[in-house]
Design brief:
Elements (H helix, E strand, L loop, with lengths): L1 H8 L1 H4 L10 E6 H6 L1 H8 L11 H5 L6 E2 L7 E6 L3 H14 L7
Parallel strand pairs: 1-3
Antiparallel strand pairs: 2-3
Length: about 110
Amino acid sequence: AGARRLLLSHPQVRGRLPRGPGPRRRIVFTAGVGENDPIVRARSLAGLQRLGIRVDDERNAVASSDPRRISPAGVEVVVLVVPTDEELEMAEQAAALVLSDHTASP
C-alpha cells in the first residue's frame, strides 16, 4: 500500500507514466536490491525484449533516492524504480493495529 501510494502521488513518476489508451503494463523494482543494484535490474530483465521489456542503460545506472523510470520512451512495458521505506510502512501498520478496535483472539 505504501509503495502504491508513493508511486501514484509522486510527481516525478506520475508525469512519466503513459496516458491515454493502450497497455499499462509496468514492472516496478523496489526495496533493497531492487532500488540499489542496476546490475540485478538489468540481468533480471535481460532477454525479455520480445515481450516489450527494455531497460535504458544510462537511466538504469543513475543512483537516486527519487522514483524514476529506467525504460526508454515508447516501450510497451514501463520499468520503474520506486524507493521504499519498509521501516516506516511497518511502523504505520503497527500503529494502525494498536490504535484500532480490533483485539487478537487466541
